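Sample entry (210 residues):
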Amino acid sequence: MRKRLGLFGGSFDPIHRGHVRPVQEARRRFGLDRVIYLPTANPPHKQDPEDAPRAPAAARYAMVEMALLEEEGLYVSDFELRPGRPSYTVETLEHFAREEPEAELVLLLGSDALAQLHTWRRWRDLLDLARLVVLTRPGNEIAGLRADLAPELRERLDRGAIDVIEDVLVDVSSTGIRSRLAEGRPSEVWMEEWMAPLVVHYIEKYAFYR
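Predicted structure, serialized as tokens:
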């Protein structure tokens, strides 16, 4: 049987359980042999300085590594940490298609990213390079986003050519975590509910997001 390789990119600023639990469910449900997380140095859709990642790229990579240490089948790659230029998903898929020619590529993305997919570089090529699996996030359910999708994406969704996981919702966001830390709110309880303990300790030690 052909191996299936999942790819999951993002800022992970910081990584939290909402980035992990739905991915593990996708790995189980769709028979993914591995999922590779791809922390991005310069997200091309976040060119506004206000939207740029707060923690350094190397620190975000380290946090992903810590979060995945005990997660079976989940790994991290530094491929999108190239300095000085944005990382485009289509180029990442082309790279892994060359590196893993025998594997079927599966691109995991949040439902909010699906709504913006038509603005990505060479977005139609993504549909040829990989199967899409959408991880629904609280407040970004597919039903509410459907009208804003590009017609081609709506059509693929309707005929089942895009897979969706809607029943694993983790109500946490990196934005919310950063806001709480910036406010100096006590973190002992809520942080470990939302993030791996090693990630919590790392953030505390280096005072990220304060």
